[in-house]
Queue: 3 jobs
Job 1
Amino acid sequence: MTLPKDNSESDEARAQLQVTLADAIKQLKLDVTELQQAQLLKYLALLHKWNKAYNLSGLHTLAEMLTFHIVDSLTLLPFTKAERIADVGTGPGLPGMVLAICQPETEFFLIDSNSKKTRFIFQAAANLGLSNVHAVHARAEGYAITPQVAIVTSRAFASLSKFIECSQHLLSATGRMLAMKGQYPQTEIDELPAGFMLFGSHPLQVPGTTVTRHLLDIRRVGPRDQ
């Protein structure tokens, strides 16, 4: 693939992005090393560059992408301690790539049906030297992982019922499904399929925004009587 040259990022702009990211990480009280922060910014630059040619994101400026893609994904980090994680409907790797950079000991399966987006993930992971990332071009419901993973994440994947329907076979018996949502989706929670229950809801504040976010922790239970 031939990508457009990207000379839009001045030294001053790069410095501001570094400050914005570092400040957000401090506000979120995350343990992200300087090397990992540099990798996050490199991933951001790659996403911005590829987006010009392949329309991977609806956002177009580096500042927007940093806040609403990178920092937004980082809010999930305190909840994703596991050996193996699947991120379904990952798009260009959100939140999966962001988490993989910060959790190098965790194996990530980044699943999306859009081949342009999974090709980007593959190239970005190679560029960043991420050996813990598997770019999977598939529909989640048609892909199998053995052994199953401890966590399945989703940042922008339809309804909770659809998320469970398409992804539950990827999840171990004691695993968690972590769905990032905007407003608290009470109707979707009320319609969770039998065998699954909401175990917790965590409000998420994205530094630099007034965006309302909720992380829903859904797990398997016995068949519900109600």
Job 2
Amino acid sequence: MASLNKILLIGNVGGDPEMRFTPSGVPVTTFTMATNRSTTLSDGSVKKETEWFRISAWRKQAETCNQFVTKGKLVYVEGSLRTRTWDGKDGQKHTSLEVNADRVLFLDKQGVAVLPPEEISTDEEGDIEPDDLPF
């Protein structure tokens, strides 16, 4: 039976990236990104929710992200979810989900966008609506 582990995100970078190298010399760049969602409640008030993701890019993509990704930039990330576990300084086992990026696109006006701007519209706050995405 076939399976699929795929995640697509559009959001803002939470901080400048950090590039490291594995013991074998493979570059890896990590950064965080936030996605925002607004929901109108039954009383008419708007509830805003933010989800944070830890992103890891490898090899050539890592070098590109380290060079062009900066805090606040709008990016598209396509990849797979990966579980990471480690022992903390307190002796406790910790687990987190992170995105192993296959593709990172820079959506800010200064960056390179694969999708033509007329295919994506934004609301007054600049949020991209799911119906506006061409996929």
Job 3
Amino acid sequence: MIYLQLLWVYLKIGLFGFGGGYAMLSLIQYEVVEHHQWLTSQEFTDIVAVSQMTPGPIGINSATYIGYVTTGSIWGSVLATTAVCLPSFILVLLVSKFLLKNHNNPYIKSIFSGLRPVVVGLIASAALLLMNKENFADYRAIIIAVLSLILVRKTKIHPIWVIVMAGFTGYFIY
């Protein structure tokens, strides 16, 4: 039964997860933590952290890990990963044929213009979701984040170097 639930949950997430992995996080959190209660909030936060560090898209990495943790089997990982990818794969095949024929249509351009703010909202939702006591420690973390943002926006320093500097700063502060 858990495999069918996992399949259904990740098919829904794959179908409605517009905007990529970070936009999917709020959907995944709702299904896995709140609705089915397969994981605690702390476990979910840990999975997100591991999924961010692991090469590949965060939505797929988290699906793989949650599938394993939920079922205790590699087949849970395979099922969740396949289920989260399958709707996108099918939709891309269908939509690409349509868009090749209609790419200059003004209605199509309007639809994509309307989807942009929705994607930004979903990503902002994921950011708010991760602002919990496990992730957002104190004022020092806020200062590091704000200074990092200012460095990236106001200087020519590459964002990777800013991340490295923020990591070292956090290491020495904490």
